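Practice problem 4.
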C-alpha cells in the first residue's frame, strides 16, 4: 500500500500515437502514488505544462481502473495537449513536481578503467535523469578546478532543456562519449 502524502509520478518511457496524435498511449513504471481512470495528471518537463485526463489504464495486457507504485502501465490520454508528449517527460499529480534547468549536485566519477575522464568547469555532460537524456554545462565548486576519476565533488549543472527534477533525485551521466559517473540533486536552483 502507498504511504499517505506520496503523489503520483510516472516517467514517460515510450509514446504511441493513434488517430493523428489525438489519442496517445504513454508507457512507464509508476514511481510513486496511484492513478485512477478519470484522474487529471500534469505533463512535466521539456516545457510541457498541460493538464490532461487519464482515459484508460492498461496493465499486463488488460484494462484496469487503478494502478499504483511499481506497476508498468500504459496510460491512454486524449486531447490536443497529448500530442506534444515525448519520452523523458513525467506525468504527475498536478503541482507535485516542477521542471528545472539548473541544479546543484554531488557527483562521483568512475575509474579511468570504467570510462571516466577528468571533468572541468564548462565541459558538457550528457545527463540521464529518469527517462530524459539532456546535455548540460557543468560548473565545479570554487574549491576545485578539476574533478579526477574516482573522486566526488559538488557541481552546478545547467541543462539545455528543462526536466522534471526533485531534491535527492539520482542521475547518471556520460562525458566524452563514455559512461563517467553518477550524482544526486542537492539543490534546485531555478
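Answer key:
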Amino acid at each position: 500500500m502507498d504511504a499517505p502524502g506520496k503523489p503520483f509520478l510516472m516517467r514517460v518511457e515510450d509514446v504511441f500515437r493513434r488517430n493523428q496524435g489525438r489519442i496517445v498511449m504513454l508507457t512507464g513504471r509508476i514511481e510513486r502514488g496511484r492513478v485512477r481512470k478519470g484522474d487529471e495528471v500534469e505533463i512535466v518537463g521539456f516545457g510541457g505544462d498541460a493538464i490532461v485526463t487519464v482515459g484508460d489504464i492498461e496493465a499486463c495486457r488488460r484494462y484496469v481502473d487503478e494502478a499504483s507504485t511499481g506497476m508498468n502501465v500504459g496510460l491512454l490520454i486524449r486531447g490536443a495537449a497529448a500530442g506534444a508528449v515525448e519520452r523523458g517527460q513525467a506525468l504527475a499529480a498536478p503541482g507535485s513536481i516542477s521542471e528545472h534547468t539548473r541544479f546543484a549536485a554531488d557527483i562521483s566519477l568512475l575509474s579511468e578503467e570504467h570510462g571516466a575522464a577528468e571533468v572541468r568547469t564548462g565541459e558538457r555532460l550528457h545527463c540521464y535523469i529518469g527517462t530524459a537524456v539532456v546535455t548540460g554545462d557543468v560548473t565545479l565548486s570554487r574549491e576545485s578546478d578539476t574533478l579526477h576519476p574516482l573522486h566526488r565533488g559538488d557541481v552546478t549543472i545547467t541543462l539545455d532543456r528543462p526536466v522534471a527534477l526533485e531534491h535527492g533525485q539520482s542521475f547518471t551521466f556520460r562525458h566524452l562519449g563514455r559512461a563517467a559517473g553518477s550524482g544526486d540533486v542537492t539543490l534546485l536552483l531555478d
